[in-house]
Amino acid sequence: xxxxxxxxxxxxxxxxxxxxxxxxxxxxxxxxxxxxxxxxxxxxxxxxxxxxxxxxxxxxxxxxxxxxxxxxxxxxxxxxxxxxxxxxxxxxxxxxxxxxxxxxxxxxxxxxxxxxxxxxxxxxxxxxxxxxxxxxxxxxxxxxxxxxxxxxxxxxxxxxxxxxxxxxxxxxxxxxxxxxxxxxxxxxxxxxxxxxxxxxxxxxxxxxxxxxxxxxxxxxxxxxxxxxxx
Amino acid sequence: xxxxxxxxxxxxxxxxxxxxxxxxxxxxxxxxxxxxxxxxxxxxxxxxxxxxxxxxxxxxxxxxxxxxxxxxxxxxxxxxxxxxxxxxxxxxxxxxxxxxxxxxxxxxxxxxxxxxxxxxxxxxxxxxxxxxxxxxxxxxxxxxxxxxxxxxxxxxxxxxxxxxxxxxxxxxxxxxxxxxxxxxxxxxxxxxxxxxxxxxxxxxxxxxxxxxxxxxxxxxxxxxxxxxxx
DNA sequence: ACAATGCTTCGATGGAGATCGAATTATGGA
DNA sequence: TCCATAATTCGATCTCCATCGAAGCATTGT
Lengths: 230, 230
Description:
Two copies of one chain form a homodimer. By secondary structure, chain A is an alpha+beta fold.
């Protein structure tokens, strides 16, 4: 009755899962290796929570994701290295076909410099910032985790950020987040969010409407560098 | 205005191309490495010619295929090894998730034995047949091509198949076709088509309706073996 | 020149699924 | 116990696109 029977594994099924922009964004975000909650993935993908939940269910059903329930959070992660490898392969093809970007817009450049990644800052500025934090031992790497270094508490207190405000939440205080453009980590987690809050509150920069782009004012950029990079 | 901007290569675009069943079947068929015509791919995918043409245009536009116009045929092939690698990666994931087959139906087994591949026979029987032809020098391999061996003309004439009917057409007389299940070649091309015609005309086997499955009758199977394998 | 074959384009149709708001369930904290 | 937050389920809408028939173009062969 049903004609479309093919030999070979059901490649269309899995490719179709990756083929939706929202799901692709989620998977890309998970390529960092760390698991994310449904809310975070919804923000990453730029869709509402119900929509994200639906997509996550499909990805789970398709076997591309695993989930770990922890409290009232559900941490979704890639099902394994094989899945990650597949996504890298797809990325490779997409990149080599690459400059075929649909949006060659002005965003491309500005996004590289500074953009929002869920609730924290990403892009070149953010990468430099994290590098500086580690160089000055405000933060230290512990394997794939980040934690407060010996000079960290004093520093963050001095600039008005409570780095200890994090103990109760299950959300990690600091996470690193690898973005595709720079190939380097930047600071995520509660601390990263707090820093972005400060940047916006001080009006050193503003978010472009309906975009992830973060634009610094000339003066704001100086303040930012003085505060975080000097 | 448009919000869904993501960093990284446009993975969804290329995955979406592979995500359609018809296109996935085409790509799978092209994994043999040999280029196929639009008609052949339409048959492989189980769709009409216009539909196939539309898909091929999309795959071309997406950069996954190349095309070589040759006479009034257009031979479509994978754009390169990178694309093939990506498809293999997807196959790997799909297979490991594998026995999750949507159709666990009876087809699976019968398809392995004998099925139609465009216009010729595929499956275990077809593979054995080609093996026999080559062992008895009815056909010889020349690199990736097949051509008539020294005992071939007499043999095919004896069973009522004109193996020379092929000179004028540009379509290769014999091609080998690698199928996924058996991982071995079977006979395609004009000669392969003529043989399938004979099998059906003699009523040794019949095609299942709306399927690629070919079912041999008990007597027909004996005749088939006597004619082609003895 | 004319017919035949391979392929593409056009136009119309139908169905699948992505999306969101609202309601529901589950968990944690006061 | 009661509220707040995380996440899923439900229902409805709407857009996209796979599909095919018919017509159009291109190439080959007679």
